[in-house]
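Field log, afternoon session.

UNIT: design team B
ACTIVITY: writing a sequence onto a fixed backbone
BACKBONE:
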């Protein structure tokens, strides 16, 4: 069986992570949550009260990011600390675009992602996977959805975790983040020329998963 690389890109709350995790499980692939890595870097910036990328990098080098399968799904660690839930807090969400746009942070984390992906058999989701991190991936998906639907998804997710959230404010924040991610100078959010565009508005997770897996199985 060929060990392929799958890149899933798209804006915030388009369902990238949920879909990628299911595809990884179904096709026996390694799932690397790149968005979580940038959220961890943002958490470090907030907690260490710094905007210095080298300070953030040094902290992560001393407390490496790692992933593990837990009873409720994938868990994210910063050193020995489980940060799975805290990196999804609104404070982190609203600051992640700024931190992830830092060239030093991106270079550091991209190198880590590429090292892990070198042997194939992997699926990654993010905003620049198909254009920067895995430019030679055999399958690239650009997953989008309306702002309204993405806000509803994040609202329900936050509520289920007990995170207070205002839906209308969430819509504004997601739209603002789309603009930031699409217009940043370093690795902006954009569809790779050879990526397949998939609009998930009105589609179920199962529909999106089936679409990607059908494409992937042709390459394995």
């Amino acid at each position: 069986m060929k060990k392929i690389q799958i890149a899933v890109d798209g804006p915030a709350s388009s369902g990238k992570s949920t879909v990628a995790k299911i595809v990884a499980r179904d096709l026996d692939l390694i799932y690397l949550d790149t968005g979580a890595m940038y959220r961890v870097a943002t958490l470090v910036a907030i907690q260490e009260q710094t905007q210095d990328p080298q300070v953030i990098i040094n902290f992560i080098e001393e407390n490496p990011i790692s992933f593990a399968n837990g009873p409720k799904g994938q868990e994210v660690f910063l050193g020995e600390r489980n940060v799975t839930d805290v990196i999804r807090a609104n404070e982190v969400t609203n600051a992640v675009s700024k931190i992830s746009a830092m060239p030093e942070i991106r270079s550091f984390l991209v190198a880590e992602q590429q090292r892990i992906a070198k042997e194939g058999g992997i699926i990654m989701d993010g905003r620049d996977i198909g254009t920067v991190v895995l430019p030679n991936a055999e399958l690239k998906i650009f997953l989008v959805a309306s702002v309204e639907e993405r806000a509803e998804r994040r609202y329900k997710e936050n509520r289920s975790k007990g995170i207070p959230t205002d839906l209308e404010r969430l819509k504004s924040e997601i739209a603002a983040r789309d603009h930031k991610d699409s217009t940043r100078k370093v690795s902006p959010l954009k569809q790779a020329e050879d990526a397949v565009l998939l609009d998930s508005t009105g589609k179920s997770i199962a529909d999106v998963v089936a679409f990607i897996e059908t494409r992937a199985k042709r390459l394995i």
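LOG NOTE: Residues 167-183 form the longest helix (17 residues).
NEXT ACTIVITY: expression trials, pending approval
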